[in-house]
């Protein structure tokens, strides 16, 4: 073994331990970083050819590995946009220059423009509800933005109305006095008001008049309450809807029509299911359940375990807006690590596969949760001491070799 070989070997040992200490430093610095995956150093020998009785030292080579695919513990938070993946998969975020990259750091927070960014400044990507995702490309993904959903009004389009009309009521036979004629002296049997919503979210009160016209027949007329005079009739506009109701003479159940269509002023046509109504020998009853709601501000954001992002409004209604997908690669530990706990798929890791959380091997998504760093501080401190001692030992070998080389050089002086 030559002295030069000794120097090279000990130098490679110091370089390898220096790499190991660098990974330890990174890990300790990121012990509290959300979703951080710790780096480790693996060593392999470097061997040079040696003849019989002539040993030539080689050295050591250091290879840094990151356990990107590992799963660490989680911590509960008080923010619904703090997300963690339970199982396989990564969030897809917008990286440098808009390039999609993968991450497990789900500390997303709403920005002024409505997008959701994590602590590293990466923007969460998702699919608008109704979009069919591609299984092996980022096509169709867009930045999740909830600012456009800040206010919402849903016009009424359907509902269910149930009523019982009293069998023994007196019939009105003068057609000129029926509510549908809209005369000042209009006569009716029963009246009930209910509410629907127009396109602007304005509540529109509707007056429904029920008038018996003969055996097992009734007339129903619906008016816009805003058009009524102080006493009701006449209204300034004609009835929004008028129908003749026919009841079975044996069961006294409504036979026709089974629905009533009412065009809401400045809104949609509300189709009311009235098929469960009756004409029984008892008092008048009425109940209505109509969809739609007034303009309402966003109260919170809810993200289900399958990645469906829903906006919850102050009125209690909920609307699904985005689907947050997950991505996987065949060999996650081989992805390229970039700043901000993000990763780029490459040829070694395999191409990206995108899917819905909770299906086809993908993990589920938990809100109000963050994935912890997988760094164990005690382990890192132990590794640091070990690497420090090995580094110092290699330095001592290098110093010894240097001293011996100096003695050898001085022999010729």
Automatic annotation (TrEMBL):
<dbReference type="InterPro" id="IPR037925">
    <property type="entry name" value="FlgE/F/G-like"/>
</dbReference>
<dbReference type="InterPro" id="IPR011491">
    <property type="entry name" value="FlgE_D2"/>
</dbReference>
<dbReference type="InterPro" id="IPR037058">
    <property type="entry name" value="Falgellar_hook_FlgE_sf"/>
</dbReference>
<dbReference type="Pfam" id="PF22692">
    <property type="entry name" value="LlgE_F_G_D1"/>
</dbReference>
<dbReference type="InterPro" id="IPR001444">
    <property type="entry name" value="Flag_bb_rod_N"/>
</dbReference>
<dbReference type="Pfam" id="PF06429">
    <property type="entry name" value="Flg_bbr_C"/>
</dbReference>
<dbReference type="GO" id="GO:0071978">
    <property type="term" value="P:bacterial-type flagellum-dependent swarming motility"/>
</dbReference>
<dbReference type="InterPro" id="IPR019776">
    <property type="entry name" value="Flagellar_basal_body_rod_CS"/>
</dbReference>
<dbReference type="Pfam" id="PF00460">
    <property type="entry name" value="Flg_bb_rod"/>
</dbReference>
<comment type="similarity">
    <text>Belongs to the flagella basal body rod proteins family.</text>
</comment>
<feature type="domain" description="Flagellar hook protein FlgE D2">
    <location>
        <begin position="168"/>
        <end position="290"/>
    </location>
</feature>
<dbReference type="InterPro" id="IPR020013">
    <property type="entry name" value="Flagellar_FlgE/F/G"/>
</dbReference>
<keyword id="KW-0282">Flagellum</keyword>
<dbReference type="Pfam" id="PF07559">
    <property type="entry name" value="FlgE_D2"/>
</dbReference>
<dbReference type="InterPro" id="IPR010930">
    <property type="entry name" value="Flg_bb/hook_C_dom"/>
</dbReference>
<dbReference type="GO" id="GO:0005829">
    <property type="term" value="C:cytosol"/>
</dbReference>
<feature type="domain" description="Flagellar hook protein FlgE/F/G-like D1">
    <location>
        <begin position="84"/>
        <end position="161"/>
    </location>
</feature>
<keyword id="KW-0966">Cell projection</keyword>
<keyword id="KW-0969">Cilium</keyword>
<dbReference type="GO" id="GO:0009424">
    <property type="term" value="C:bacterial-type flagellum hook"/>
</dbReference>
<dbReference type="GO" id="GO:0009425">
    <property type="term" value="C:bacterial-type flagellum basal body"/>
</dbReference>
<dbReference type="InterPro" id="IPR053967">
    <property type="entry name" value="LlgE_F_G-like_D1"/>
</dbReference>
<comment type="function">
    <text>A flexible structure which links the flagellar filament to the drive apparatus in the basal body.</text>
</comment>
<feature type="domain" description="Flagellar basal-body/hook protein C-terminal">
    <location>
        <begin position="370"/>
        <end position="411"/>
    </location>
</feature>
<keyword id="KW-0975">Bacterial flagellum</keyword>
<feature type="domain" description="Flagellar basal body rod protein N-terminal">
    <location>
        <begin position="7"/>
        <end position="37"/>
    </location>
</feature>
<protein>
    <recommendedName>
        <fullName>Flagellar hook protein FlgE</fullName>
    </recommendedName>
</protein>
């Amino acid at each position: 073994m030559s002295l030069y070989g000794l120097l090279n070997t000990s130098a490679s040992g110091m370089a390898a331990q220096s790499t190991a200490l660098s990974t330890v430093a990174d890990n300790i610095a990121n012990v509290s970083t959300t979703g951080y995956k710790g780096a480790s150093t693996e060593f392999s020998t470097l061997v040079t050819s040696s003849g019989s009785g002539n040993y030539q030292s080689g050295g050591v080579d250091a290879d840094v590995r990151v356990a990107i695919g590992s799963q660490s513990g989680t911590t509960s938070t008080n923010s619904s946009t703090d997300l963690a993946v339970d199982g396989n998969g990564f969030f897809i975020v917008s990286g440098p220059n808009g390039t999609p990259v993968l991450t497990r750091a789900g500390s997303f927070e709403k920005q002024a423009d409505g997008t959701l960014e994590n602590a590293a400044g990466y923007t969460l990507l998702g699919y608008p509800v109704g979009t069919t995702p591609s299984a092996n490309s980022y096509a169709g993904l867009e930045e999740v933005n909830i600012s456009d959903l800040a206010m919402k009004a849903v016009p009424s389009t359907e509902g269910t109305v149930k009523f019982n009309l009293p069998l023994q009521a007196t019939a009105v036979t003068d057609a000129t006095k029926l509510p549908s004629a809209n005369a000042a002296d209009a006569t009716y049997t029963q009246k009930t008001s209910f509410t629907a919503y127009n396109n602007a979210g304005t509540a529109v009160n509707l007056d429904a008049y029920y008038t018996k016209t003969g055996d097992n027949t009734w007339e129903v007329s619906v008016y816009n309450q805003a058009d009524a005079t102080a006493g009701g009739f006449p209204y300034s506009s004609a009835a929004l809807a008028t129908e003749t109701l026919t009841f079975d003479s044996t069961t006294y159940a409504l036979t026709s029509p089974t629905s009533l269509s009412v065009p809401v002023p400045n809104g949609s046509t509300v189709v009311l299911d009235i098929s469960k109504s009756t004409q029984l020998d008892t008092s008048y009853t009425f109940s209505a359940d109509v969809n739609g709601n007034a303009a309402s501000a966003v109260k919170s954001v809810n993200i289900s375990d399958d990645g469906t992002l829903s906006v919850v409004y102050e009125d209690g209604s909920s609307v699904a807006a985005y689907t947050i997908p997950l991505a996987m690669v065949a060999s996650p530990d081989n992805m390229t690590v970039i700043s901000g706990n993000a990763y780029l798929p490459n040829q070694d890791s395999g191409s990206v596969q995108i899917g819905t959380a909770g299906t086809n091997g993908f993990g589920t998504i938990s809100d109000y949760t963050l994935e912890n760093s997988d760094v164990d501080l005690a382990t890192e401190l132990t590794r640091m001491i070990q690497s420090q001692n090995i580094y110092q030992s290699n330095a001592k070998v290098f110093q010894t070799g240097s001293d011996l080389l100096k003695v050898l050089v001085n022999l010729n002086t």
